[in-house]
Write a structure and sequence with these properties.
about 35% helix, GTP Cyclohydrolase I, domain 2, 4 helices, single chain
Length: about 120
């Protein structure tokens, strides 16, 4: 099983607990680590045999753009659930979700959560 990294995906969305976050919006950054078997793609050099990075990006963008949530934890869980429902060859995934410059009354670069999920079919 190998790792695929997709980092620095930036989105503008309207998630947050506070009303001003829901109205003004904020920038969110997503980093993914995806574990899957890459053997077939290594040998065939064919996109059909690989985990398609563009499809992953589109899935993450859809979740972030088309949902409204209060908490980063909830959004990160939705991203993981979506990825596992759409990509059969995904064995494990980690998402690092950050909100840039959150309105917390002071200078803060970002806040974030890291979550991992395993495919239920995988051995423990």
């Amino acid at each position: 099983m190998n790792k695929i990294l997709i980092t620095g995906m930036e989105f503008f969305a309207f998630h947050g607990h506070y009303e001003e976050e829901k109205l003004a919006g904020n920038k969110f950054v997503v980093d993914l680590t995806l574990w899957c078997n890459t053997r077939k793609a290594e040998q065939s050099d064919n996109l059909e045999d690989a985990l398609n990075y563009q499809s992953v990006y589109i899935s993450v963008k859809e979740v972030i753009s088309n949902t409204k949530v209060n908490l980063l934890e909830h959004l990160a869980a939705k991203i993981l659930d979506t990825l596992f429902s759409e990509f059969d060859n995904l064995r494990k995934a980690e998402v690092y979700l950050k909100k840039v410059n959150p309105p917390m009354g002071g200078q803060i670069k970002d806040v974030g959560v890291v979550m991992r999920k395993k495919n239920k079919k995988e051995k423990k």
